[in-house]
Amino acid sequence: MSPGPLSPDPEFVGRVDELARLAVPATAVRAGRHQTVLVQGPPGIGKSGLIRRFVSSLDDFTVLSAAGDQAESLLELGLIDQLLTQVPADVRAHTASLGTGAPAGANPLAVGSQLLDLFDELQRRTPLVLVVDDIQWADHSSLQALRFVLRRMWAQRLLVVLSSRTDDRAAEPQLERMIHGIPTDLRLELGGLDLVDVTDLALAIVGRRLPAGAARRFHSYTGGHPLLLRTILHEISSQRSSIDWRLAVPPSVAAATRQAFDKLPERSRHLLEALAVLGGRPSLAQAAEVAGLGAVHHALGPAIDAGLVTWFPAEPARPVAITHDLQREAVYSAMTPERRSDLHQRAAATVEPFLAWRHRVAAVGTTDPVLAGELETAAEVEAEAGDHGTAATFLSWAADLTPWSPRSEQLLLRSMIHLMFSSNRGRARPMHERATRCSPSALRSLALGLCELYLDGDRRDGERHLRHAYEATAPGTWEHGAAAGGLAGVSVWRGDTQTAIEYADTALNTPGVPAPLRDYVLCLRGTARGRRDGLIAGLDEFHLLPQQAAEVPDHHLEALSCRGALRAMVGLVDAARHDLLEVVRRQEAGVPMLSGITPYCYLASVQYQLGEWDAALQTGRKATLLADDDQPAMNEVILLFTSSIVPSARGAWQTATRLVQAAGAAAQRIGSPQDLKYAAIAAALLCDARGDLPGVLRVLSAVPGLRGGGNAPGGIHEWWSSWWQPLLIDALQATGHLAEASAELAVLRDRAKDGTVLSSTITRLSAQQAAAEGELHLAIDLAESQLRTDGRSAPRLADGRLHHAHARNLIALGNYSEAGGWLDRADQVFTALAAHPYRQHLHPTRAALAAASARRPAVHLTDREREVVALVLRNHTNREIAARLHVTQKTVEYHLRNVFQRLGITSRRELHRFF
């Protein structure tokens, strides 16, 4: 391949859907069908970066690329010259007039004719991709030559990728004239990056992921525009001081905002300051009152003209706001403390009660025990209503307004505990150090233990603190029950199921335990039952939940999530999908869960099994965005594992390897048996996609208790056994451990008897086992029995792999014609899923089929004999054949005897094998 001048941008992120769409025409070109792609979008939106990343994946293509330049748009055949410099000299030598480049003053059509010969020669060697970036600036003669070529290369292996700016109106007519009459197979209109891409871009530039709040601010300000995002991220990260990304404002934005602010009339500046304090979109009257302005309309105009304020006249209740959050932060940070306090005091009298608390606290310049007491009372009301996040906020404010004392310590610790049951647990992390300085107490131990357990993943210190809280409190108190709930989690992660159930029962029978923790403890009990008594027993813990997921109340959302996970583990994937989709929908609506992103991870795994790979990728991307500072550390490995499965199966080796390696490192750091198993499954799936079955065996054997002991009913390894056990059996069979494979296969059959998701996999493994043991006819019969009853229409990887295995066995039996059909079906499944590695696994089998077919002797049959054979191959009886051909059964028998003698066979089964 000619590398050309294109190299991928190291800061390129996202564009998963666009890259998948671009892969389709590339596949068509490999098959000999010319394709043209047009990528459009505004300047800086990432057209060039997308094309570079796409072209870098075409390692079997020759690449020729050129880029239009506004300064060179009058240079005759300038763009053609760029292309010619990349054509090998031996190919250029075939065309005398282009051997040293495009001749000056040449007729563009004549140049196009010569280019046609060059491209034809190149595509005979490898598929050819022709990239023209910024074509709106290409010179006229180059456009003429290219148009001549493109109108005449439809039968060639040529992929043409063009890019143009959508806002260059002067160039659009010329571009449209160029492609007029040339069908464009794909048009991509690029928009901004999504929220996940913003966090990925920050990781590439800054070396860390942005907090979700910061990502949303920057995404809102830039619309996801990559160039503007890069500028902001580079600018902020270049500051030497420590950065609070949740509040960071790029210096250029702050300076531009301040410059525009200073030029405004005084009344307009007062209005902007009031809007910065109020936030959101307050009414114009409310803003005027806080700003201390009688009539505000004259102040509004200059602020709108400066681009700092947006007015919404169609919404009279809330018609005005500062245009961007970053501008609001810049205005707010520039105010003096006295000015802020004054405005917050005024704002408190104009807003709803909850917001009034915020303004009252912001207006205080010293401690205020009276206000602290009011906040504590308000926190109790919010906690009783189930709003633990607001309760935590009020208690935190109360602690800050109270002089440091045992009372302020208690307020701080109670705030931390409530945060554990909110949707923003990460707020408790910076409070941890302050909590360690509090006087020793049961409440301190409970707060530290819950924070260490559910945020830091520090089970050793978490258990120590929770055990102290449990032992230092009286049975029946909510603190005692909450500590028991935390210890139930520690016991589950350790694998001590009986102790976990005992702690869980204590927590569930103690009044006053916060409802979110109670629901989560119910999940812990179900998990412990599943590991002690088997998955079905664990699933029975949730038999009182409504069968319809939509009918389960929010206070049992954790239980619904666990039911969905257990259903997925026992193979009831369709029911699991319904449960988990409902859980994720409510999480996105704001319902907090202690289990964090775990439902997303299980949902992604179910979608993968069902063949919904694009949906699985999207679910994983959402989980990655939500995996912020408030996510339990225990979710890190399962997120990396489930995020890796589709990239592995699709051959995105760089992404898959990065995720698998990160999962392995995190699992070693955390050290729990289930995390080691997650990392091993991720690594095994990557090895499997690469065709490295000894590698599969190696990584699975490294998990303590998995091989040789992981097949026991119940136990920690029964979870996800529908994933790791087929991989293990496949690897055992491939490496000659047939006795062990047979034993594992028997356990897998028993486990999967209540579900259907593993039917194709078990059939494939059973057929492989039979073939390895010399029972080839049994292997064929097992597969055909499954394939006759399989009515699924959606493509699933397991089905394609069964088709492939069946084709291999048919080839071994000599039934070449049927083998080719099953290889084609496998190819269709793998193509639909974009499972490129598994398509590549078909190549050796196709080669074996071609070689075996070539060795088969040529046989000459009469037309009537061919008719009889065709009907036999469709499994018709002699009577049915006679009826269809309007002959007697004796005649059919006569023709079959002749066919058998000519082929040297004696039965219909052998006839099937032969053809």
Short structural description:
With 915 residues, this protein is mostly helical.
Structure description:
This protein has 915 residues and is mainly α. Among the domains are: 16-189, Rossmann fold; 195-248, no CATH class; 249-350, Orthogonal Bundle (Arc Repressor Mutant, subunit A), CATH 1.10.10; 366-472, Serine Threonine Protein Phosphatase 5, Tetratricopeptide repeat; 759-855, Alpha Horseshoe (Serine Threonine Protein Phosphatase 5, Tetratricopeptide repeat); 863-914, Arc Repressor Mutant, subunit A, CATH 1.10.10. Helices cover 63% and strands 4% of the residues. The chain has a five-stranded parallel β-sheet, with helices on both faces. Strands 6-7 form a two-stranded antiparallel ribbon. A hairpin with an 8-residue loop joins strand 6 (309-311) and strand 7. Helix 35 crosses helix 36 (721-734). It is flat. The relative contact order is 0.04.
Present the secondary structure layout.
Blueprint: H1 16-30, E1 35-41, H2 47-56, E2 62-67, H3 78-84, H4 89-92, H5 108-125, E3 128-133, H6 140-150, E4 158-165, H7 172-179, E5 186-189, H8 195-206, H9 212-222, H10 226-237, H11 251-262, H12 266-278, H13 284-291, H14 297-305, E6 309-311, E7 320-322, H15 325-334, H16 337-348, H17 353-363, H18 369-384, H19 388-400, H20 406-419, H21 432-436, H22 442-456, H23 459-472, H24 478-494, H25 497-508, H26 515-533, H27 535-540, H28 557-569, H29 573-588, H30 598-609, H31 613-626, H32 636-649, H33 653-670, H34 673-689, H35 693-701, H36 721-734, H37 738-751, H38 759-772, H39 776-789, H40 797-813, H41 816-833, H42 836-840, H43 842-855, H44 863-873, H45 878-885, H46 889-903, H47 908-914
Parallel strand pairs: 1-4, 1-5, 2-3, 3-4
Antiparallel strand pairs: 6-7
Protein name: LuxR family transcriptional regulator
Pfam family, one: GerE
Domain HTH luxR-type: 854-915
